[in-house]
Each structure stands twice: as structure tokens, then as C-alpha cells.
TrEMBL record:
InterPro entries: Aromatic_CoA_ox/epox (IPR052703), Ferritin-like (IPR012347), Ferritin-like_SF (IPR009078), PaaA (IPR011881), PaaA_PaaC (IPR007814). One of its GO terms (cellular component) is cytosol. One of its GO terms (biological process) is phenylacetate catabolic process. This is 1,2-phenylacetyl-CoA epoxidase subunit A. Keywords: Oxidoreductase. It is an enzyme of class 1 (oxidoreductase). Pfam families: PaaA_PaaC. It comes from Acinetobacter piscicola. Its EC number is 1.14.13.149. It comes from the Bacteria.
């Protein structure tokens, strides 16, 4: 008699990816739907702070790049919703849960984009943080999620570079532009670090997700990698890191950060961030406003199906 649990455990041990038709524990499936669903929602909600600046981008080139980036984020959401569907999740149900506040999305998108420099900072810092997390996810144990991440990472690299380049232009611009760049770093530095989730001693899902190789590195390990990558970039721009306690530890070769304001993070997760209400409201309007398109597409698909069936018969 086949021992499904044993086969699953062996696949884990040998780093063989789990595919949609393979047996998997219910809790593994549930965790993946939670994480991939949140990830997909983050891509969708993440379009909003940037979309805010499409009509106000400072040049035709910046506008074209931003439009392409926002469209890429929509594409990432589609790969991710599809990956969640391979686990039996229903896309409409996930969207209803997001709007009802029963599914999360990344905390970072609850901050406003007050100036053009914030858009540059999102590309550089937010996509930069996302890459650190997602490069690791390219080897996650669930095949469709890992494969989606490979493509997403290629696009995120372009996003990160264009953000850094836009930031460099501001940092080397007039004193006012340089100040605008510094203000954006001051506002986004800590929220970007919070993207990696609670500290390891306060992360309820990490132990199990690491055992299942959904997560290959802990929240703190990835956060450290982001800080180590990014501090030299801030300095290269001639800007400062808004952390008076930041120091480089010569012995470990790592930067040591000051304390993260976890009360602010928890408030955002509880729906009390600066833009939580606005973001969900925008999504609700888009979802309800798009219903007629989804309905029409479904009727058309049904009609096509009936016609095809009639041809075969
Ligand atoms: N924000 O036990 P933990 C992008 C939740 S978008 C909100 O450590 P886990 C982009 C967590 O879900 C990229 N919630 O959880 C798009 C859990 O709550 P539940 C977004 C957070 O899952 C447009 C609870 O806190 N990337 O790149 O082991 C423009 C306890 O946490 C956050 C992803 O989604 C947070 N920051 O680890 C530009 C990456 N952190 O579910 C850019 C995929 C934690 O138990 N996700 N929570 O109610 C992951 O890698 C993991 O899910 C996390 C959290 C590292 C985020």
C-alpha cells in the first residue's frame, strides 16, 4: 500500500519539487494558498501607490517606464493567482477575502507616495527587498510557485535598476531634488525592512514553512541580506540611512541595524496604516466595476465551448 506521507517526506529530503497532482498534506496546501494568495494580492495592491504618479511622471521616458512596471506587477499577480489555483484555490474567493480583510497583502503598500522620489524609492528599495525574498523563493518546494518566481525575479531586477537610476538622477540633481530623494529614503527605509515580516522569534509560520522548504531562509536572515546589500547603495547615492544606531560590524562583515518599530508594523497589519482603507476601497471599486467584463467573458467562453462541442458532434 502506497504511503503518501512518506513519498512527500522523501521528496522534501531530496529537494524534489511538489507538483499540483502530487499528494501533499492539507496544511502544506493551506499554507501555500495563504502565502501565494497574499503575494498575488500584494502585486495587485502594489500597483496603486505607483499608479498615483503615472499621469505626473516628470518625463515621457519616466512615464513609459512606470507604465511598463505597473503592467508587469499585474502580470506577476496573474502568475501567482494561477499558481494558487493549481492548489484548488478559487480566484473570486481570494479576491472576496482580500476585500473583506480576511486575506493580507504586503504592509509596504499602505504608505502613500507623496513625491516623485517615493516612486523611485519604491522601485529601488521595495522591489529591491522583494528580489531578496523572491530569489530565495525560486527554489521553494512547490513547483508552480518556484517557476512563477523565476520570471518575476527577472522583471523585478529591471524594476530595481530603474528605481535606483531614477534615484541617482535626483540625488545628483538640485539641492531640492537631493532633499526629496533623502526624504523618500527616510520614509521608505524602515517600511522596506518590515516587508520581511516579524522577527524570527515572533514569526508563527516560519518553523513549519522552513521544514516544508516553502521558505528557505528566515525573515531576519533575508532582512539582514537586504540591509547589507542596500546600505552601500545609499552611501553611493550620497544619501544617509535614517538609522542612528546603524553600524558595520568588522568581525561579522554585516551591518547591525537599530530597532524596528514593530508597533507600527502591527498597526498596519491590523488595518490601521495611513492608506489601508484607501487601498482596499480602490480594490473593491475595481472588482465591482469589472464584474460585467468577467461575466461577459464567461458567457463568451461558454458560447465558444458549446459551438466547439457541436462541431465535434
Ligand atoms: N505585510 O509567520 P510570519 C512586490 C503576516 S510585492 C503583511 O513570518 P510567513 C511589489 C504573515 O502573513 C512582494 N503581512 O509569516 C509589487 C502572517 O499572517 P497570517 C510581496 C505580513 O508567511 C508592486 C503574520 O504576519 N512579497 O514585490 O511565514 C510594486 C506572521 O508572519 C508581512 C511577498 O508577498 C508583511 N510585510 O512570512 C512593487 C513574498 N509579514 O498569514 C513591488 C511572499 C508577515 O498568518 N511572502 N506578515 O495571517 C513571504 O515570503 C512570506 O509570506 C513573508 C511572511 C516573509 C511575507
Amino acid at each position: 500500500m502506497k504511503n503518501y506521507q512518506q513519498d512527500f517526506d522523501q521528496a522534501m529530503e531530496k529537494d524534489i519539487s511538489i507538483e499540483p497532482k502530487d499528494w501533499m498534506p492539507d496544511a502544506y496546501r493551506k499554507t501555500l494558498i495563504r502565502q501565494i494568495g497574499q503575494h498575488a494580492h500584494s502585486e495587485v495592491i502594489g500597483m496603486l501607490p505607483e499608479e498615483n504618479w503615472i499621469t505626473r511622471a516628470p518625463s515621457l521616458k519616466r512615464k513609459a517606464v512606470l507604465l511598463a512596471k505597473v503592467q508587469d506587477e499585474a502580470g506577476h499577480a496573474l502568475y501567482l493567482y494561477s499558481a494558487a489555483e493549481t492548489l484548488g484555490a478559487d480566484r473570486d474567493d481570494m479576491m472576496d477575502k482580500l476585500i473583506a480583510g480576511r486575506m493580507k497583502y504586503s504592509s509596504i503598500f499602505n504608505y502613500p507616495t507623496l513625491t516623485w522620489a517615493d516612486v523611485a524609492a519604491i522601485g529601488w528599495l521595495v522591489d529591491g527587498a522583494a528580489i531578496v525574498n523572491q530569489v530565495a523563493l525560486c527554489r521553494t518546494s512547490y513547483g508552480p510557485y518556484a517557476r512563477a518566481m523565476v520570471r518575476v525575479c527577472k522583471e523585478e531586477s529591471f524594476h530595481q535598476r530603474q528605481g535606483f537610476e531614477a534615484m541617482m538622477q535626483l540625488a545628483n540633481g538640485t539641492p531640492e531634488q537631493k532633499q526629496m530623494a533623502q526624504d523618500a529614503v527616510n520614509r521608505f527605509w524602515w517600511p522596506a525592512q518590515m516587508m520581511f515580516g516579524p522577527s524570527d522569534d515572533n514569526s508563527p509560520n516560519s518553523a513549519q514553512s522552513m521544514q516544508w522548504k516553502i521558505k528557505l531562509f528566515s525573515n531576519d536572515a533575508l532582512r539582514q541580506k537586504f540591509v547589507d546589500n542596500t546600505v552601500p547603495q545609499v552611501h553611493m547615492l550620497g544619501l544617509t540611512v535614517p538609522d542612528p544606531d546603524l553600524r558595520f560590524n568588522e568581525e561579522t562583515g554585516h551591518y547591525e541595524s537599530g530597532a524596528i518599530n514593530w508597533a507600527e508594523f502591527n498597526d498596519i497589519l491590523a488595518g490601521k496604516g495611513p492608506c489601508n482603507h484607501e487601498r482596499i476601497e480602490a480594490r473593491r471599486k475595481a472588482w465591482e466595476g469589472g464584474k460585467w467584463v468577467r461575466d461577459s467573458a464567461a458567457v463568451y467562453a461558454q458560447k465558444q465551448h458549446v459551438e466547439e462541442a457541436a462541431k465535434v458532434a
